[in-house]
Amino acid sequence: MSTRITSPRWLWLVLILSLLVNVFCVGLIAGRFGHRLAGFLEIHRQVNDVLAPLPAPTQQRLRAELRSALIDSRAQFAALHTGRQQLLDHLAAPTLDPTAIEADFSRNRQQLQALQTALQQHLLQTVSTLDPNERQLLIESLRRRLPASGIGQLDRLAH
């Protein structure tokens, strides 16, 4: 029986199965991280497209300020994520508790509004540091990329 296990044909079969399992695992891991990386790269590309009309030093400063705003808001993003997970847990419970679910919805609305307010304040501070020409270039670049519903708010920032 040991000659059967160590025969070249058997070893090749084990080697091929091992190789297939390894390729599958690597593909699974790469796909998971690749999906996240693709999302990050898309956001990075969009930011680059919006900032493209501005001079290079202004682009660098705005990227640094955006990075700072996101770092400063990290705790608010985490709280919002936790709140959404709680809401999903309550919705998935065997018996629905409308009071708890409504409290979760309310808390999520408050957290989202607080996060939006903080980011909008940071945007206002950032845009106010631009000279009128740079501000107009930025707003025109954003105007080409945003849906029509946000244009009124951008027009107020430009002037």
TrEMBL record:
Q: What is the official name of this protein in its record?
A: Signaling pathway modulator ZraP
Q: Spell out the family assignment given in the record's similarity comment.
A: Belongs to the ZraP family.
